[in-house]
Design brief:
single chain, alpha+beta, Uridine Diphospho-n-acetylenolpyruvylglucosamine Reductase, domain 2, Alpha-Beta Plaits, seven-stranded antiparallel beta sheet, five-stranded antiparallel beta sheet, 17 helices, globular, binds flavin-adenine dinucleotide
Length: about 475
């Protein structure tokens, strides 16, 4: 029988206990919102992390309401069944990859924009709303939710759980700077709310911030209140080639210290831009002779609600970059600008198609980036690995695609990269999260006392350890 075909169950490989558990789940969500056995699509066995082993779960459940999430969680808790929350599965750290004994809680049927409040400048959404759907809804009324990780198919629930960042963090910060309130379900099945449509609170520990970035290990998020902003009308895209990698990076703090506030400030090495550009048919208009000299590029987007102010900012930034050693500054037309953004957003897919074995999203203080890039180049050549860089240089967060097929060598290369990032005052993951992929590095390189405190927090939220086991720790 098609395993999703409804009750009663005829499972060959499960215990009576599990059959009963499935029956109870179906009682909560209805059999159309439950998949098990061969009825589970392969998609639910993985996310987009490059190095993770795919794993089918025991079942996938699709709740439609918070009450259903609470009932599922209470059932899981009483039977000791692990639950793995899932948004769109676009994560890059293995955070949504299930274990063979777990049930995936997919939020794709909790995908409504519940309220757009243009007086308080907030939006209230269910966790399964995708960034693309939210943007479409807000664009119609001249507003924007400004955190755009490169994958617009990702959900707000996934964004909260990974504290997603993306290209616009240089101006607007990351998800945790935009989330004002959450409704969430604890492992016990209790439903709680914290925060709300207000921008300030000094009222005890901040549970909203604790749950943001917790990768589904502390609670299941069922409703989210986020800041929104008037959508700026005018934007300009600059492409800025440099013949010297160190000069690109050292120009970043100078631009940010000039009073300009770019929406996007990205770094791309010349090889990376060529590969990404070729994928989308990008014509930059940069003359061949300049391209020959360019080792790396800055890609900057400036925006404003007033065109005169934008003109002033373009002049300020362009003059400064030329003084700082840029080969030239190119203002792209609308079509080329859209292609450049598309090219940059395709970075992950380009790396994947070229056979990258892992992505590292270490973050260091902005000023340390030249030193860090230099060190990574040395690690690459010493280990015989190929490592290309592109990323959110305005935030000190460069994404490295690591091409090293030997598993042991790769582990050592990445450990050295992360260790050096930590030594420079950085962190292991800027925005992708630890999940299961970066867990071994966190356990080895992070302060053990801090890890123990995190474990105690985890136990307070989830004493039986049923929420996303094996992730983070
Ligand atoms: C091409 C590409 C580009 C990307 N670019 C960026 C980028 O620039 N910046 C960036 O930050 N990320 C980026 N990502 C990574 C990814 O898009 C983000 O991590 C995103 O937040 C994941 O959202 P999701 O809905 O796909 O979550 P999933 O992958 O489904 O889940 C991610 C984590 O969230 C947990 N989770 C999901 N929903 C809930 C919930 N309701 N309650 C509790 N926990 C939950 C899961 O258990 C898991 O631990 C990129 C990914 C791709 C494929």
């Amino acid at each position: 029988m098609g395993a999703s075909g409804g009750l009663p169950f005829r499972l060959m490989s499960t215990t009576k206990h599990f059959d009963e558990f499935l029956g109870s789940l179906a009682g909560v969500v209805g059999s159309r919102n439950l998949r098990y056995g061969e009825g589970i699509a392969e998609d639910y066995s993985h996310d987009e992390a490059l190095g993770e082993t795919w794993q089918m779960p025991l079942a996938v459940v699709f709740p439609e309401t918070t009450e259903q999430v609470a009932a599922i969680t209470a059932l899981a808790s009483s039977s000791g069944t692990p639950l793995v929350a899932r948004g769109s599965g676009t994560g890059l750290s293995g955070g949504a990859v299930p274990t063979s004994t777990s049930v995936v809680v997919s939020f794709e049927r909790m995908a409504e924009v519940l309220e757009v409040d243009t007086v308080n400048h907030v939006v209230v959404v269910q966790p399964g709303v995708t960034l693309a759907a939210l943007d479409e809804c807000l664009a119609e009324i001249g507003f924007v939710y400004p955190v755009f990780p490169g994958e617009l198919g990702s959900t707000l629930g996934g964004n909260i759980a990974t504290n997603a960042g993306g290209m616009r963090a240089v101006k607007y910060g990351v998800t945790r700077h935009q989330v004002l309130g959450l409704e969430f379900v604890l492992a016990s099945g209790e439903v709680m709310r914290s925060g709300g449509k207000f921008v300030k609170s000094s009222s005890g520990y901040d549970l909203v911030q604790l749950i943001t970035g917790s990768e589904g290990t502390l609670a299941l998020v069922t409703e989210i209140t986020l800041r929104i902003y008037p959508r700026p009308e005018f934007t300009t895209t600059l492409l800025v080639p440099f013949s010297n990698v160190a000069a690109v990076c050292s120009s970043v703090p100078e631009v940010l210290g000039s009073g300009a506030l770019p929406l996007i400030m990205e770094y791309m090495d010349a090889a990376g831009l060529a590969a990404m550009g070729a994928r989308v048919g990008l014509e930059t208009g940069v003359p061949e002779a300049v391209q020959q000299l360019a080792k790396a590029y800055l890609f900057i987007i400036l925006e404003d609600s007033k065109s005169e102010r934008l003109e002033d900012e373009i002049e300020l930034v362009s003059e400064l970059l030329l003084q700082l050693g840029a080969l030239d500054v190119y203002l792209l037309g609308d079509a080329a600008a859209a292609k450049l953004l598309e090219a940059r957003e395709s970075a992950f897919w380009v790396s994947k198609s070229l056979g990258a074995n892992d992505i590292v999203d270490v973050v260091v203080p902005r000023g340390e980036i030249p030193l860090y890039l230099d060190k990574v180049a040395r690690i690459a050549s010493d280990s015989g690995s190929f490592i290309s860089a592109a990323g959110h240089v305005g935030d000190g967060n460069v994404h490295f695609s690591v091409f090293q097929p030997d598993v042991i060598k790769r582990f050592e290369v990445i450990r050295e990269m992360l260790n050096y990032g930590l030594a420079l005052g950085g962190a292991i993951s800027a925005e992708h999260g630890i999940g299961s992929e970066k867990r071994e590095y966190l356990l080895e390189l992070e302060d053990p006392q801090k890890l123990e405190l995190m474990r105690r927090i985890k136990r307070a939220f989830d004493p039986a350890g049923i929420l996303n086991p094996g992730k983070v720790f």
